[in-house]
Design goal:
Elements (H helix, E strand, L loop, with lengths): L6 H15 L24 H6 L2 E2 L8 E2 L7 E5 H6 L15 E2 L13 E2 L2 E2 L11 E5 L2 E2 L13 E8 L13 E7 L7 E10 L9 E13 L3 E12 L3 E2 L6 E2 L2 E14 L2 E14 L4 E2 L18 E17 L2 E19 L8 E22 L2 E22 L12 E23 L2 E23 L25 E21 L2 E12 L10 H11 L7 E13 L5 E23 L3 E26 L2 E17 L11 H4 L9 E12 L5 E11 L2 E2 L7 E2 L2 E11 L5 E8 L11 E3 L22 E5 L5 E9 L1
């Protein structure tokens, strides 16, 4: 029967296979691993294509079938990302349970990623990411400039849990691996144009996008190239009730190039990316004025952001003996400036400006062997970055000039160096049964100079015109800041086992990871800082330790029409790092980075796919999480004491329940082409945002849908798509500020998950209902 499938049917099955392989909510999505990964699968059967799905994030000698990997991993290939109409990485937030890839909202593009309850809520660049982001093998040292427009991707892979034995950089929550498109052996191109925007009255304008990529050989089989360009003009989704203007406007440009040289057994792949984006500051809502289930906002200053980023990588691979030697060199240069209306009111109460500069280099050298039942990867990693940060705060410009507080200035700079050695092995001791072991040695050094953000004459840490503290530090006399350095050394092990049978497997492992401590660039309350110093004797915060215990199974029927992946885990967090936000009339918001508690996060995940016909497939998932504090080290409830009230608080960014369902259908239209339809619904429970639980994230029900018509014109397809079709309000944060309006309530009603804020909030809004059309031409 396979040989009798008509050509149109083979194309239709191939498209369905690409979507099934990374269908919404499935943990076994495809990850393109070479230049031809985005081409139509050669198989005439969708299930055969699913069986051949490969991932690269495990860094073995050869890419692995994702169903064989003893690890919770979700990945998306180029075709799937196109089908989902993903504009930026945050568009994948609702494609798998226990994974949130949102941006924090204070500064556009700053990641606020959380995996299995491990994440941060900060835009301070001196905080190490919990979830590491790797672009073409290069680790991004800060969260800023991560959640921006994406195009021409081969794959995105999300690995859950500590990943120190697999990646050059030690990460505790998980890893997001982004692989941009590689040059191709044949000449091909892809051009896209799209427009989308709000369809509800009283909101902003349209969002226009065009992009193009060409790729092919310069010298056949020896030198290949790829060039791409992207342009986006966003007129702003929101309507500012203060003046009727659109809020959230942005303009983004990306230029990208790649060269691949095949020199005998040596392959060199170089990539260079230039990114530039400018636009409005945060579209923030103050919930002292407006209902948190509305998109209403009124701010007297639109603010701005500006980002310029250069990113480059050079990857060299060569087969030596029984294995492959790989070296990945990376470089990044990042510059950004922001200004935002932080009080989020129509009165000038608290506005802030920032400037950030970061440059980094990294090098990872690894050797991977696959022989005689042994898969072994070992290597070393070096990383160095310099980060400098300026901040200014202006408060109460509504007052007469003689009563206005002076402007506060401050910030910090830091040199950060990482050296790591890692190894991971899997050995099959009997047929189907393997033992897994890994280890990482890690050393991190941080050398920082911090200037308190206090009222003072205009100065800049970046320009080195701000005074810094004395050495040694004396809290009784120091009024400017401090200089300090710290070194962290640790060992991260991993132990596990896997048993494979038929088309299925069960596995279990324990892994440990560390997130290094450091310094707070945003110290606005010196008294609190000095109390912390006197209590601990440290000018910074300590490293966080994470132990993850996981058992899981990946099950598939013989004909692969039904797949079920499940995982249960217990995560023990020691010295949890948190940014504790406190409302303060003098500083606006006080943000203390502290080791607040020891905690346990327990969870269960299940994801399933069922193909009921060659044209129709269903997907489903559920994630249940139970998280709680074991020991509280800091008064996170804000009542001045550490009591059971602190222990009873919910951990931030941990929704107890998430679940979703989806379907994919392909309708053959004969000579008129075909229609591919995708519908996905996802529910996410309410979750705390701030440690004291006075700020929280809304319960969400998201519905996405798109229909793509593959026209009779070869290479041309047209799509209609919709995001957040239920028009749910999602916020990047819900930080308490001491400014509000008619909805403000007194302290007596200020309680965890209360209906109203104590005074007001800074709650940056994400887009509501959004509908668009797209044209794509490939040759």
């Amino acid at each position: 029967m396979k040989n009798q499938t008509p050509v149109s049917g083979r194309v239709r099955l191939g498209k369905l296979a690409l979507l099934l392989s990374a269908a919404t909510l499935t943990p076994f999505a495809a990850a393109a691993q070479d230049a031809d990964a985005s081409a139509e699968p050669a198989s005439t059967n969708a299930l055969d294509a699913v069986d051949e799905i490969l991932v690269t994030g495990t860094k073995t000698k050869d890419a692995e079938n994702v169903q064989d990997v003893p690890l919770a991993v979700t990945a998306f290939n180029a075709g799937t990302l196109e089908a989902f109409k993903i504009r930026d990485i945050s568009g994948l937030s609702f494609q798998a349970p226990t994974v949130s890839l949102d941006q924090v909202g204070t500064s556009r593009g700053t990641a606020n990623f959380t995996v299995r309850g491990l994440g941060i809520n900060s835009s301070i660049p001196s905080i190490d990411p919990t979830v590491g982001v790797f672009v073409d093998g290069v680790y991004l040292g800060i969260n800023a400039g991560v959640v921006f427009d994406l195009f021409d991707l081969d794959s995105v892979e999300v690995l859950r849990g500590p990943q120190g034995v697999l990646f050059g950089r030690n990460v505790t929550g998980g890893a997001v691996v982004i692989n941009t498109g590689n040059p191709t052996e044949d000449f091909r191109g892809k051009f896209r144009a799209a427009v989308d925007g709000p369809v509800d009255g009283g909101r902003g304008g349209a969002n226009y996008t065009v992009s193009g990529v060409i790729s092919g050989p310069i010298v056949e089989d020896t030198l290949l190239f790829k060039l791409g360009a992207y342009y986006n003009k966003d007129e702003g989704y929101f309507r500012n009730l203060f003046n009727g203007d659109n809020q959230g406007a942005a303009e983004t440009k990306i230029l990208r190039g790649a060269l691949e040289a095949r020199l005998g057994g040596l392959t060199l792949l170089g990539k260079l990316d230039y990114f530039e984006s400018d636009g409005d500051g945060p579209a923030a809502q103050n919930r002292g004025f407006f209902d948190r289930n509305s998109f209403d906002l009124s701010i007297d200053e639109p603010g701005f952001y500006s980002n310029k980023i250069w990113t480059g990588s050079l990857t060299a691979t060569i087969d030596i003996g029984p294995g492959t030697l790989t070296n990945v060199f990376g470089y990044r240069d990042y510059e950004a400036a922001t200004r935002g209306d932080i009080d989020a009111t129509p009165v000038f109460l608290f506005h802030s400006s920032t400037q950030t500069e970061q440059d980094q280099i990294s090098n990872e050298l690894r050797y991977a062997i696959a022989t005689g039942g042994l898969d072994l990867t070992f290597g070393g990693f070096y990383f160095k970055q310099n980060v400098a940060y300026d901040e200014s705060r202006e408060l109460r410009r509504d007052l007469p000039v003689n009563l206005r507080p002076p402007v506060s200035y401050g910030g910090g700079r830091q040199e950060h160096e990482v050296l790591g050695l890692f190894a991971n092995a899997q050995y099959e001791i009997v047929d189907g049964f393997s033992l897994i072991g890994g280890i990482r040695w890690n050393q991190e050094k941080k050398d920082a100079a911090v200037t308190y953000v206090l009222a003072r004459p205009a100065c800049s840490v970046i320009a080195r015109t701000c005074p810094t503290g004395t050495q040694p530090f004396n809290p009784a006399t120091e009024t400017n800041g401090f200089r300090d350095d710290v070194t962290f050394r640790n060992v991260s092990p991993k132990l596990g086992a896997q048993y494979e049978f038929g088309n299925s497997q069960v596995y279990g492992h324990w892994s440990r990871g560390f997130r290094s401590g450091g310094y707070n660039f945003r110290i606005t309350n010196v008294a609190i800082f000095n109390r912390a110093f006197n209590a601990t004797g440290s000018l910074g915060f300590d490293e966080e330790k994470v132990d993850n215990y996981e058992i899981g199974g990946k099950f598939q029927t013989a004909d692969r029409s039904f797949t079920l992946n499940v995982a249960g885990y217990v995560t023990k967090v020691g010295n949890m790092q948190r940014e504790v936000n406190l409302s303060d009339p003098g500083a606006g918001v006080v943000q203390n980075i502290l080791n607040t508690a020891n905690a346990t996060i327990k969870g269960f995940e299940a994801e399933a796919r069922m193909r009921v016909s060659p044209e129709l497939a269903f997907t489903a998932n559920i994630g249940i999480t139970d998280a709680g504090y074991d020991k509280v080290l800091f008064d996170i409830s804000g009542d001045g004491r550490i009591t059971d009230a602190d222990l009873d608080l919910s951990l931030p960014r941990v929704p107890p329940v998430v679940f979703g369902v989806g379907l994919i259908h392909d309708l053959e239209l004969g000579n008129s082409g075909s229609l591919l339809t995708r519908v996905n619904y996802q529910y996410r429970d309410r979750a705390a945002y701030t440690d004291d639980n006075f700020g929280w994230l809304n319960e969400l029900q998201t519905l996405e849908a798109n229909i793509t018509w593959t026209t009779p014109i070869q290479g041309l397809s047209l799509s209609i798509y919709g995001r957040n079709l239920l028009d749910e309000v999602q916020e990047g944060g819900d930080t308490q500020v001491p400014f509000g309006g008619p909805r403000s309530v007194g302290a007596a009603n200020r309680r965890p998950f209360g209906p109203n804020p104590a005074a007001g909030t800074f709650s940056p809004l994400m887009r509501g209902r959004n509908v668009g059309i797209e044209a794509l031409f490939e040759f």
